[in-house]
Amino acid sequence: MRFNLVTLFPEYFDSTLTAGLMGKARERGIVDVALVNPRDFAQDKHRAVDDRPYGGGPGMVMSPGPLSAALESLKTPGRLFFLTPAGRPLTQALCRELAQEEAVTVICGRYEGVDARLLEAFPITPVSVGDFVLCGGEAAAACLVEAVARLLPGFMGHEQSGDEESFSAGLLEYPHYTRPEEFRGMSVPEILLSGDHARIAAWRREQSLAMTMRLRPDLLRQTELSEEDARFLRTQPRLRRGRNLFLALVHYPVMTKFGEKGAVSLTNLDIHDIGRVSRSYGMSGLYLVTPLEDQQALAHTLLDHWTRGPGRASNPDRGEALSLVRVAENLEEAVRDVTERTGVRPRVVATSARTQGALAMSQVREWLTDGPVLLLLGTGHGLAPEVLEGVDGVLPPIRFLDGYNHLSVRSAAAIMADRLLSDTD
After folding, report:
1. What is the dihedral angle through the alpha carbons of 322, 323, 328, 333, rounded to the nearest 10 degrees?
2. 3-class SS of residue 408
3. pTM here?
4. Which residues pair with residue 147 across a beta bridge?
5. Angle, CA 74 vertex, CA 92 and CA 33 arms, to 5°
6. What is the widest separation between alpha-carbon atoms in the chain?
7. Does residue 380 sit in the same domain as residue 253?
8. Do 407 and 282 sit in the same domain of this protein?
9. 176 is a domain residue
10. Spatial separation of the C-alpha atoms in residues 205 and 231, rounded to whole Å
11. Domain of residue 196, CATH code
12. Do 320 and 340 belong to one domain?
């Protein structure tokens, strides 16, 4: 495979292209690299390849002329790529795709970037190796070349070496161990010494799943998972966070539309939808908080219908969701119940569309890893000031930079649940 590297500093690649497996692959003809310097195509006596940007501003911009001439000089350019933080992420999937090509051309930018017209004149794909800025594209190009080249047949001594690595199956790689068996008080996992290859393979799969869930849960969305994988993942701390989260739908004390403290009636849709959100995100409970006896009776009638009566027979999924719902006379009762169920008094967190709370979602996620959290959702026109003053923290409005914060409590509950418990945050 041929790599054309368009760079102002070809000497940058002196060691990168000669060391280790890359050097051996070039000697065997598996990889062929051409270094093309745009300065060789400059038209003036100073061999200038940059100029000041139109519109002013700091730094210089690479001129389109020398770069265009450099690209047009290539006999086999193949697909064209430009390294930039604004590009498409360089993933293992893209590397596998490029490993099927006969040739790839990589443009290494410098200074403040390249003239944008170059990207319009040629079918160039911007690519990024990460959300950070380098002095130039050479280091990024070295990453791309090595990531692609090592997938070529014959590049690595053991052809299966690339099959069990991070990202190859959509997961991060499992941990490795070698001699000595014990190092500084730490032992090699016993299963790796068992000689039972089936158990070792299963352990390695679980380790890959656990590491991916902990460090890169976003990868799981695009990975094919078996039922056994899913069962294992449900035991991981990230998903256990849901079991530590309890919701309280507060109907008193809340603010009325007249700006007074009062109570509001239960809403059938709220109970159904927030109950389903609670079950979907693996929460442990939803409390309907109201001191009004007629409202408590109504809630019990509704819940009995769906959890014990005809409703459960006709719609068992709905019944399963509403089995999480309990009725509490006040917030103190809800807190006591969570304490009895978990053995730990919960941290109480409030939500408000009117108060610019200072508690971060990330902090609540940390709390959920350690123990129970009771998240208060206000009905009517929001929780009363006395409630907000007595909690462990108040989250900012969902759209805190916007002036319009008038979502239904059902919508707010779903959004809050996803921000706190998303599998891929």
Report:
1. -140
2. coil
3. 0.66
4. none
5. 50
6. 92
7. yes
8. yes
9. no
10. 13
11. 1.10.1270.20
12. yes
